[in-house]
Design goal:
The structure holds 2 protein chains of 2 kinds. Chain A is mainly alpha-helical. Chain A contains 12 helices and 7 strands. In chain A, strand 1 and strand 2 form a beta hairpin. Classes of the chains: A mainly alpha, B mainly alpha.
């Protein structure tokens, strides 16, 4: 961490000599070494950790329970439940959340878990798609996510994802907003430090959807990303925008190997 | 720090004396070496108002900095303390630091408080507006210059 935060100071004189193009390449690739990657869980206060660890105290479990009810409920013109085709999620959905977003051949682009759920909603149940951040979509994705708890993040090795991964990396390192900051300047270079009262985490997506104390509710990764984008005084993308999917692909790749914690708890 | 300042001189000598700003509604200013020697408004700022600006959340300084603000519970540690900064830098240097810190260090995380160009995807509410007005910059410069105790 210390090495990382000193990086720009070190390189500033070099940049003057080499020109700025060279340093952009270097800084874009100065990621946190794999061995130093840690979940946001590591920095939680003891009582927040305890809340996440105990299913009877973790408020996110209420969403998981609602998700289970939805999983088993017949719905749509097809009058089918998710369970009618996918059986017991405890076996069929294990590890699924750990390998999304994934490339969807029919659409010719990557989709995240929420979009995957809505595809089945529309195509298989013949029902209307759930809105982003609706109780239903959060509950189902929390329920499916929970089936991967403890599973290491394992992004698919699918060459078709590469351009989207690269787009996500580029977004992560691009300065934006009135404050002219990049995600990486906080989450790669300054993690572990304090931004006023908040500890800067490494920005891993391994707990989503999760219960955030500030929200007093479960929210998606996209909601969290929007919070950071608004904090930079940049314009957030609309929910479901392809930019969030590329960013998520990069975040999942960056967090590869970290265990899924859904539903996690964060401050 | 020494190495960095030499590097800065290399960078800035080339820019010496150029008019740096004709951006929209912003007032023009002249950079000389690593400073903007002249007040943006032509008058001196008010240090009392400057302190209030620095500690106000929406002006973002305390996200990154700490300083002699015993009443403020939440102060950042991403950057040097503002304590003693008036002994380290003169008013002109502090002014350039606030107006556009990226001219001192292209890779700094410190936002440019009086700049509207060269930014990406700025949210509509903030678009075309500097983070601080020229008057606020002068108030903050006047306040920072009083922070002489290390």
């Amino acid at each position: 961490m210390i090495v990382n935060s000193k990086r720009t100071q070190w390189l500033a004189p070099v940049a003057v000599m080499l020109g700025f193009a060279a340093i952009e390449v270097i800084s874009a690739h100065a990621e946190i070494p794999l061995g130093e990657r840690r979940s946001g869980y590591a920095d939680l206060a003891p009582d927040t950790k305890a809340m996440q660890d105990d299913d009877t105290a973790n408020p996110g479990m209420l969403w998981v329970q609602d998700g289970e009810a939805l999983w088993n409920a017949k719905s749509g013109a097809a009058n089918r439940a998710c369970a009618d085709c996918h059986n017991d999620a405890r076996t069929t959905m294990t590890g699924v959340a750990a390998r999304y977003p994934a490339f969807n051949s029919k659409l010719g682009r990557p989709i995240d878990l929420e979009q995957r759920i809505n595809l089945c909603r529309v195509e298989r149940q013949q029902a209307s798609a759930f809105a982003y951040e609706s109780k239903e979509l959060l509950s189902l994705s929390a329920f499916i996510g929970k089936q991967s708890r403890g599973e290491p993040i394992a992004p698919p090795t699918d060459e078709r994802l590469r351009p989207f991964l690269e787009a996500g990396l580029e977004q992560f390192n691009r300065r934006q907003g009135q404050l002219n900051l990049s995600c990486g300047q906080c989450h790669d270079d300054n993690w572990g430090k304090r931004l006023a009262g908040s500890l800067i985490p490494q920005a891993h997506p391994n707990g989503y959807p999760l219960y955030r104390l500030e929200w007093q509710a479960v929210g998606s990764l996209q909601r969290r990303l929007r919070n950071c984008i608004v904090g930079m005084r940049a314009e957030p993308y609309d929910y479901g925008a392809p930019e969030y999917v590329s960013l998520e692909i990069y975040l999942m790749w960056r967090a590869r190997g970290l265990p899924i914690e859904t539903p996690a708890v964060r401050p | 720090m020494n190495v960095r300042r030499c590097a800065l001189l290399v960078l800035l000598c080339a820019a010496t004396g150029t008019v740096a700003s004709g951006q929209g509604s912003l007032r023009p200013y002249v950079i000389v070496d690593d400073a903007i020697p002249a007040s943006l408004t032509g008058t001196r700022g008010d240090p009392g108002r400057g302190r209030a600006i620095v500690v106000a959340r929406q002006n973002t300084c305390l996200l990154c900095h700490s300083g002699p603000f015993p009443e403020e519970r939440f102060q950042g540690n991403l950057s040097p303390s503002l304590k003693g900064t008036g002994a380290r830098w003169n008013e002109g240097q502090l002014r350039l630091r606030l107006v556009d810190a990226s001219r001192l260090n292209a890779h700094t995380i410190m936002p440019s408080y009086y700049r509207v160009e060269g930014l990406n995807r700025v949210a509509p509410a903030w678009r075309g507006k500097p983070i601080l007005s020229a008057e606020q910059i002068e108030d903050v410069v006047a306040y920072l210059a009083t922070l002489r105790d290390e």
